[in-house]
Write a structure and sequence with these properties.
Largest sheet: none
Oligomer: single chain
Shape: globular
Length: 248
């Protein structure tokens, strides 16, 4: 991951490592008494970037956009000639000028974002949402020690990176199909069960069971699955390949 977009993320990785907050996992959140989960932090970050002025949004997307100055330029992301240092990442610098040259190819930022000139604000925000996810996955790839999990993160990193570049919708496909893989999904199955089993109760009691079911789903969502490496070490079964597929 040595392209301009990846290099631009290096200061964030250094800052996260120094503060001990890198990664895309659940962190120190307690499923029963949840603090600010990674998903909530990502949602907050997405709200922040959606509130950026248009110029700042284009700069952020330019990092993930190929240069269109000429057919011969192979630069696949604008690189800030004056990148912020790791110690100043929390400060919101002024948006770069569209005439600012790329540190990699020398062409202007405008040459990297020309394809976004007439794109709607909703589409810009959708792409920015994927940028936030890519940033989180980038740090997760570097933080994760388990090889199998790292491969999953890296696959998603490359998928979203490509979708930003091509302005396409991310589609996760494999031998199991596409998410959520089964219908109804687990959440809907649990809620259906609660409705079937406890619909005869008084409203207050029924609401209690509903809240308990949500707590169960939160715990299930935070459950860390055994990695394929751990599974192979624990069992003598010959289904390690099938387990790795399910895990992925």
């Amino acid at each position: 991951m040595s392209d301009p977009a990846t290099q631009a993320l290096q200061p964030r990785l250094l800052q996260a490592q120094s503060s001990g907050s890198a990664g895309s996992g659940t962190g120190n959140s307690d499923p029963v008494r949840p603090g600010l989960s990674q998903q909530q932090r990502a949602s907050q970050k997405k709200a922040q970037v959606r509130a950026f002025p248009r110029a700042k949004k284009l700069e952020k997307l330019g990092v993930f956009s190929a240069c269109k100055a000429s057919d011969t330029c192979k630069c696949n992301g604008w690189k800030n000639p004056n990148p912020p240092s790791a110690t100043r990442m929390d400060l919101q610098p002024q948006a770069a000028s569209l005439s600012e040259p790329c540190r990699s190819c020398g062409h202007a930022l405008a040459d990297h974002v020309s394809h976004l000139e007439n794109v709607s604000e909703d589409e810009i925000n959708r792409l920015l949402g994927m940028v936030v996810d890519v940033e989180n996955l980038f740090m997760s790839v570097h933080k994760e020690e388990d090889t199998d999990t790292k491969q999953v993160y890296f696959y998603l990193f490359k998928l979203l990176r490509k979708c930003i570049l091509q302005m396409s919708q991310p589609v996760v496909e494999g031998s199991l199909g596409s998410p959520p893989f089964e219908k109804p999904n687990i959440e809907q199955g649990v809620l259906n069960f609660v409705q079937y089993k406890f619909s005869h109760l008084a409203p207050k009691e029924r609401q209690t069971m509903f809240e308990l079911s949500k707590m169960f789903l939160i715990c299930l969502n935070y459950w860390k699955l055994e990695t394929p490496t751990q599974y192979r070490q624990r069992t003598q079964k010959d289904d390690a390949t099938a387990y790795k597929l399910d895990y992925t």
